[in-house]
Structures
1.
Amino acid sequence: MNFSVHTPMLQRLRCLLAALLLTLAPGAVPQNSDLEVEVIVSPSLAEVTLDRSLLRAVFTMRVREWPDGTPIRVFVLPDDNPLSDQFYREQLGMYSYVLRRAWDRMVFTGTGFAPTVVRSEAEMIERVRSTPGAIGFVRKRAASSQNRPAPPRWKIVTITADGHG
Amino acid sequence: MVDGFNETGRRCVRVRLAAALAAICCSGSAGAVDYQIHGYAAQGFVLSSHNDFFGDSTDGSFDYYEAGINAAVRIQPNLSFAIQAAVRDAGISDDGSVRLDYAVADYRVLSETNVQAGLRFGKVKNALGFYNETRDVVFTRPSILLPSVYSDNQNQRTLIFTSPGAQAYGATVLGQHELSFTGTFNAERDVRKNDERLLVELTVPFDLRVGDSWNLQVMDSIDGGRWQFAYSHFGGQFRMSTEIDLSGRFDVDLNVFSARFNAERVTLTAEYVLIDNDNRLTYLGAPFLRQRVAADSGYLQVEYRLGSNWAVMSRLDSFYRDRHDRSGHAFAAANPGIDRRTQFSHDFTVGIHWRPDQHWGFWAEHHWINGTAILQALENPPPLRHQRWSMLMLMAGYKF
């Protein structure tokens, strides 16, 4: 191949990149192994059993209705929320940027809907409780603050063994 | 692809700002009937040495922006409609006019946990490689400029990348593998005047149409998208007619091979495209010219996420107009006066990307380029100014 680049510029860039890595890398990706996440669904839903494959199909927006015919409405927290990262990684076995790429592709090609992004866990609970067919995720109550709203009428879904794989 | 240019002289390049950026401020979500409204807008800046790219970039060009707004409505879980209007300006290769990007009805035939299938009708996006379908949304690109596999500086949007037709799609899960398929049949359509002049060099007026074409993509996404492999194909026939008895038929076949590895911080991507052209010109009903050329292009790219907001990338990218004449010597010998270095380009890119929140994004990248095959001749009239050149690109974008 006939490729060549300007060497002095490359060296300068290497220095620049090294400096950037040193500045930004430490602690850049939050590790929150103490966070525990649970899936919540709308109380109007009939009993659903979620395993990882259904959960993945739901959150990648590939399936559009629950077995009882109710349209699926997905709620998520912002991508940079540590809880999102934890949930996607542990329950779906996926990285948030891979999911975001899939959602953006659907939104900007007219081939699907993106999940609705809510700002906080309190909003998540409220939206999931009030929206038929809704699904979302929150911090497990034991690990969260005492000030969380009293147990509302939203459902906590127990993931079958496959979901923890 | 048919390639060439007519001598219309230098275009007066205007510096324009994306006014659309300020106009977009609303968003929507689910209601009784589910609907969503989304949009994007981004303004670019290009500063290059020696050669012009996306406008008069040797003096700094703002002649590069993109914006779009879309709406999607879901009547029932298995029936939805979506539409997107878009504008894009990119020097001589795109003119900033408003276009219908897609308008599609989607009917889901099968929607099980592990098997989905459906049909789409209307003006649909064609799946080609990893990035084609959302190529004009900087938030979905790995860099401001797409690698030359995607011919970003040859506006081919009315040709290949989106077109009226019918599309069938499906996906199935087999263990760790999620296999998906998209197949599109595109109806015959006209090529926009702005694109015609970039594709065919002819001194008499002519009209270019794309005959029926088809496109397919198969993809295997393994382990939640950790590994992704895809094969995409486009096959089409272009027909040219003139007022004199000269006509042309250009058969184009594109084969794209794609592979990607997604780790927590690192994404490695490699794609290769092989473009077969079979060009035939007929004068007064008799064969006049027959030309078969195979072009190819490929790249290797690494993206590194420094955190949830910052990422850096680097890419080696090569493009050859004739894969059997990579140096361009044979071409130069057969075409006296045309420099061999117009027949290839090698682009080494480094870039950085900052996403402070879910709406805003800022990109900066530098290209070191050897060869001029990715330049538009209308922006860079012969003779060749410089074989080795470089380019700084900046972009700021907003999406909702």
2.
Amino acid sequence: MKIPRLLQVVLIFVGIYVAFKVVFGFVLGQPIPSSLLTMYMFFVVAGLFMVFTFTDESTRELVAPIKALVEDPARKPVRNVVFIVVPLLAGAYAFNVMLPDFDAPLELRSIHPAPPSTVKIYDQRYDLSTLENPLRKFQKDDPQKFRLLVAEGAEVYIRNCHYCHGDKLDGNGPYAQGLNPIPLNFQDIGTIAQLQESFLFWRIATGGPGLPDEGAPWLSAMPVWENFLSEDEIWKVILFLYDYTGHRPRTWEQE
Amino acid sequence: MYSATKKVSAIESGGRDRAMFKRDTLLGEAAPVRGHHAPGLVMLIATLGASVPSIAQPDAVSRTVEIYAQRCSGCHGQEGDGLGPAAERLNPPPRDFTLGMYKIKSSGFDEYLPNDEDLLRMIRDGMPGTAMPAWGDVLSDQEMADLVRHIKTLAGYEADEKPSQQVEYGTQVLGSADSIRIGRELFLERDRCSECHGKDGKGDGLKSLKDDNGERTWPRNLTKPWTFRASNDPRDIYTRISAGIAGTQMPSFADPASDKVLSSEERWHVANYVSSLAKTDNVVRPDNTVVKAAKLVGRLPDSADDPAWEQAEPSTFFLVPQMLAKKRLFKPTNDTISVSALYNEQEIAFLLEWDDRTQSIPGDENAEKIADGQIFEDSVALQLPLDIPSGTEKPYFGMGDPTHAVNIWQWTSGTTDEPEQTSLINARGIKDIERRDAAGAGVQATGTYQDGTWRVVINRALATANPRQDIQFLEGRFIPLALAAWDGSNGETQSRHTMTSWYWLLLKSPAGSRPLIVALIVILAIIGAEFWWMRSASRRRRQ
């Protein structure tokens, strides 16, 4: 038995919609945002329309059931039901759309905003494009001393940073849930692995309030660490962050 | 208490020897035989390695020591003595493994040694409400099993030693209205549980508790199951009631020597009751960031017990300790706060509710006895921007910034000499603070404390005569809102407090008739189109 072409269109549309929901929502665990899904489905409808109206013949076949519904006197009871249900559904949809929206406004922010070329930290001006971790050289020159510096960095971290960024450096410390935006996950390949040590120095020393406007400085709960830690301690904790996660800081040489 | 005291003295004599034993073996020196847990680590491996294939080989031992040093020592200390660098900034404090005593265990009450599964579970799943994370996603099963063995040797136990007694579960009584009722009676009977956990289970018993190391402990607020170190499954609760919590003042109620002993069946009733205490309507919902104020016709409530509050929808947020400015708070006691709001044509009213185990009244003898150190007043504060932002830019959430001022309304609970007080601050950052007259600006607040919960109501007019200094509330606008709370019995005062980040306040404007009118227009338009289509179709047929 041949499936009517109109039903085919509906089945394909529903099938793709369900597939999007199942694959992204359940299999991958990352549901598609509804606005994006609406856009995708628009392209699906456009594509279906093009394929199913490719020839005059196929177009006629597609709309035949709809034409018959309106024009065939034998279908009058079905038509009457459809003609009552459709406007009611549309009305209900319009009513819901017009209800006031209580969802919080979206707050877009740049997670890694471009740093200023120079920053003032500890009453000293630093050029971030040339600034390097003064302790990094020990990794090659004196591995034993380097291990010691990393251990000291670990101590700074566990006494100050783990509350939000977590024992596992995964951004899930005991107070992480109470913060918006949530603390950065250093294990994630998209965070410190993409950054230079001077960037981290700037972010740690000047904290949330040191962000440019596109980083939403009014939201970030990152403290201004120059008020609590010495310059040396910040460089040590940076050594620790890379050591513990196994990431390597980006340097100019690589690029 | 009860048998717990007996156990403590037993540990004091054995603990030191065990600690020394452990240090020696770790350093790889010849292990002098001390205490009754005699064999050295090397010998142990030799004997066990032969019979059980999965047992740690020397390489695995050094690997385990390495994992311990990397993952555990920051809190629990290189020596396992619970004195890692973070220890002094944590409450509860990290476990001192050299004591060989563990809070969450399922072995019998007369036994220190836990089951391996108890230790494994705490490592794998972590301990909610503490700094102990779940390591299950980082460490392999074998690594965690090796850590369990290693931790036991830190206390001088043999790595494969098993407890001789287990918690007896009897026949589980399933939760039912009857069981919960009986459980409640037993909970309250002769102040059995309520002595520490309070009448409603909010941990507000009038008792100052310390663990065996003298560290302050706070009885569990049983209405907040997300802070339970294990879970609030009745079986877990039954285990705690039966085994007690070693090293703390939570005794075993299975111990026949206790004058408050319970039978197995009775313990199931209490477990079912405790499990039923979870206050699910006060749970933090991460997707809810908006406090929605409903509009009332007529009078707004000016007290917490006004039935009008039932029309408000409470939003609950996490409180986190203040760590932005000196002095910081590291050991908070308040962890969540609920906000409700109502408004009418003239006014707005907020209801702030949070569980606090202690009503902190400086000067009051009982309150001072429970307090941890010097006592201060309890307090709560509500922060709002002076100007409602039109874009995304807001004042800095920590008391504003030079270009964006905030209004802070603060209520303090009062002392034996002073009544409760409402104050008003305009701030542009922590160093630019202007104290203003709250009554003059129309901010009124009043609080009541009952059974472990503070309820504070704050009222103000929507508009004031001073728009350059006071926020002017507007219907339908998203207004940033942040909160702070102080537990004065926990040494919290001034900058030492808990707080939230920015959330939103929305005065819900009534929908009015617009949606209905639009819906009717849409319906009529479609019906019109349908008629036109049918008529043109029938005209074509006639032709």
